[in-house]
Amino acid sequence: SKLTNLGHLEMTWRSRVRFHPLLVRILHKSRLRYYGRPEKKVDMPYQAYFEVADGSGMMTMVLWDSLCPEWYHSMKVGTVLLLDKYTIKTSYPFKTHPTPGDSQMKRFAAIEISLNVRDPPTEISIIPEEMVKPEWGLPEVKYRFITRSELDDLPNNHSCDVIGLVTFVGRAERARKREHSEDFWLYRWAHAIDGTSDQPFILELFATSQPDVFERIHPMTYLVCTQMRVIQDLTENPSRTVYLTTSNESQIFITGWHKGQPYTKDAKVKNFIQWMKSQSEAEQIKKTVIGGYYPFPRPPDSFLKY
Fold first, then answer.
1. How confident is the model at residue 295 (pLDDT cuts 50, 70, 90)?
2. What residues pair up with 290 in beta bridges, in sequence order?
3. DSSP 4
4. Would you call 283 helix, strand, or coil by DSSP?
5. Is the preceding omega at residue 120 within 30 degrees of 0, hence cis?
6. Could you tell me the pLDDT band of residue 15, with boundaries at 50, 70 and 90?
7. What homologous superfamily does CATH list for 6-136?
8. What are the start and end residues of each CATH 2.40.50.140 domain in the chain?
9. Which ranges of 186-295 would DSSP assign to H, the alpha helix?
10. Do the beta carbons of residue 2 and residue 22 sit within 8 Å?
11. Rounded mean pLDDT of 72-87?
């Protein structure tokens, strides 16, 4: 059928009601958001957004309500979609934005694609990867993997992807979303090594929309975390500690979930796998720890400083 592209949509969306089908690849995926309120009568008040791209650039796509339980888990990073009967809206201004792996890619930030269950009901098709043709010009998923030896030089809030062997994973803990609120964030701490430094990655992993992965992070698993944010302790602490925390667009993968993921082609991922082949599993197991209370960032060594 006659297709349109994202660049053409941005130029013509105000003068159209009906749009031609779109062929796009998912580059980023947010966690699922629940927006239910007692006074609102919405059957399934869920929302998730994705960054999708074609040869002309990248745009936000929002999945609404009952389409979320139906489609959210099928729409993975790297999935190619054919969309029809979608609507176009002006962008929500307070949304977080992932950092694209390709810094040259054009971003269409003024508008977003809205996928709804009615008015009109969107038609979504997933194109199997083996049927995707090079002439469609869809961009590949690109990453920003770093090694542990590079981490200390990165600025606060820098976005990156990491891979490592888990040597410690703490128990799940809760933190209030706001003071006096009854809503909590669930998170756990983990350490992962990649052979480039004596120090591990210290990872603050909030529960994303992947409970099956979050609950199964164990020592000796290969852990990949994407769209992590660098947190630099900006106080004048000589023993400053750098750690990484998840963002709204982070995805977490462990051994058993890696097959077919786009990052398996990345050079730094391949280097890590080569390093792991040279390691003794028995020696690494001796250094692993699980559970317990992990006070971090560590309190000062004297009460006066505290």
1. confident
2. 169
3. B
4. helix
5. yes
6. confident
7. Nucleic acid-binding proteins (2.40.50.140)
8. 6-136, 148-304
9. 211-214, 267-277, 281-286
10. no
11. 96
Residue 161 confidence class, pLDDT cut points 50, 70, 90: very high
Question: If you count them, how many residues does the chain have?
Answer: 306
For residue 266, the one-letter residue type is D
Task: Provide the pairing of β-strand 184-193 with 173-176.
Answer: antiparallel
- CB-based burial of residue 257 (10 Å sphere; 0-12 exposed, 13-18 middle, 19+ buried)? middle
Look up residue 139 and give its DSSP letter: P
The fourth-level CATH superfamily of domain 148-304 is Nucleic acid-binding proteins (2.40.50.140)
Name the E strands within the chain.
Answer: 22-29, 33-34, 46-54, 57-64, 80-84, 87-90, 107-115, 123-127, 159-169, 173-176, 184-193, 201-206, 222-232, 242-246, 252-253, 289-290
Give pTM, 2 decimals: 0.91
Where helices occur in the chain by DSSP H, the ranges are: 6-12, 67-71, 148-151, 211-214, 267-277, 281-286
Q: Is the pLDDT of residue 101 over 80?
A: yes
What sign results for the dihedral spanned by CA atoms 302, 303, 305, 306? positive
Token look-up 């969107």 returns 122
Residue 244's DSSP bridge partners are: 203, 230
Whose CA is closest to 54, among 106, 100, 97, 90? 106
Residue type, position 113, single letter:
I
Lowest mean pLDDT among 123-137, 161-175, 177-191, 198-212: 177-191
Chain mean pLDDT for the chain: 92
Max CA pair span of the chain: 71
Tokens of residue 78, six digits: 């790297």
Buried b / exposed e along 153-182 (16+ C-beta atoms within 10 A): eeeeebbbbbbbbbbbbbeeeeeeeeeeee
